UniProtKB/TrEMBL annotation:
GO molecular function: glycine N-acyltransferase activity
One cellular-component annotation, GO: mitochondrion
Family classification: Belongs to the glycine N-acyltransferase family.
Keywords for this protein: Acyltransferase, Transferase
Lineage of the organism: Eukaryota, Metazoa, Chordata, Craniata, Vertebrata
PANTHER family named among the record's database cross-references: GLYCINE N-ACYLTRANSFERASE-LIKE PROTEIN, L-COA N-ACYLTRANSFERASE-RELATED
Organism: Megalops atlanticus
Name used for this protein in its record: Glycine N-acyltransferase-like protein
Entry's EC annotation: 2.3.1.-
Sequence ranges assigned to domain N-acetyltransferase in this UniProt record: 152-281
Length: 281
């Protein structure tokens, strides 16, 4: 096991950039860490400088009051070149507490059986929470400006909008998720469409691992092209900044899948990222 320091994190980012899409979530974490974004992550490799596995995990927990959703969920972001190396690192003492609630986020579906085998050995109950397409956009050629009359009402979110966004988030609704939403709005790009009274009715944010997320439009404002326009503007801005542009779409979410693929987002046919839970929360 090797804990990456400042210089190793920069080198790892460069290597992971050539290993998309499997590496994109860990790459996104390192992308923001290396640019000074706030974080509470420890980055671990199985070996260095040659590595086959990198894991981004929460550092030692502090007080309950300081936890956000990522800390509360004890989320691990994982990149692995092969399942044997992943199993070996996860099985190393101190990497995973097999008796504690943990969310392994982004496990390569082709390596999942190795994680399940470890869980059985440790008598740990598990659940597959979600299986995701990893949709990436590499250029802006598919992004066309839709004809619309609301461009002047598109603006970044501000911290006072965090409560509204949290209340509609599939994984939100509590104090921990509110802190995460506030962090996303305060430190990362976001966009929203305002109504005539200056209230957000559609929005798009970025997670700490750089993925587009929390896309939502109020029911009465749907079918107006808001989501497509927000994605288009955000994606162009991110590409211009050298930022990775990607999202996770759950299998079965046909509406989101059609939306992103219509804008040029593509996925690797035989690759899925799995959100895999250890123990009950």
């Amino acid at each position: 096991m090797f804990v990456l320091g400042k210089e190793e994190l920069k080198l790892a980012e460069n290597v992971l950039k050539g290993l998309f899409p499997e590496s994109i979530k860990v790459y996104g974490c390192l992308f923001n860490i290396n640019r000074g974004k706030p974080h509470n992550l420890e980055v671990i490799a199985d070996s260095w400088p040659e590595f086959k596995v990198i894991i981004c995990k929460q550092k030692q927990q502090s007080t309950q009051d300081s936890l956000d959703r990522e800390g509360d969920f004890n989320i691990y972001s994982i990149y692995s070149k092969d399942k044997e190396s992943l199993q070996k690192l996860l099985g190393t003492s101190g990497i995973v507490s097999w008796s504690r609630f943990t969310l392994l986020a982004g496990v390569d579906i082709n390596h999942l059986d190795a994680v399940k085998e470890l869980a059985v050995q440790n008598n740990t109950p598990t659940e597959t929470v979600a299986t995701m397409f990893v949709l990436m956009l590499e250029d802006a050629s598919h992004l066309k400006d839709p004809e619309c009359d609301f461009t002047s009402r598109i603006t970044p979110l501000i911290p006072s909008h965090a409560e509204l966004v949290n209340s509609t988030w599939k994984y939100g609704g509590d104090a921990y998720s509110y802190k995460s939403v506030l962090n996303y709005i305060s430190n990362y790009p976001s966009l929203c469409v305002m109504d005539e009274s200056g209230r957000p009715v559609s929005w798009l944010l970025l997670y700490t691992h750089c993925a587009l997320g929390l896309l939502y439009t109020m029911p009465q404002y749907r079918r107006k092209g808001y989501a497509k326009q927000l994605i288009t503007i955000m994606a162009r801005h991110l590409l211009e900044q050298g930022h990775p542009v990607y999202c996770f779409v759950e299998e079965g979410n046909d509406m989101s899948y059609r939306l992103f693929t219509s804008l040029g987002f593509r996925h690797k046919p035989d690759y899925r990222a799995v959100w895999f839970q250890l123990n009950r929360r």
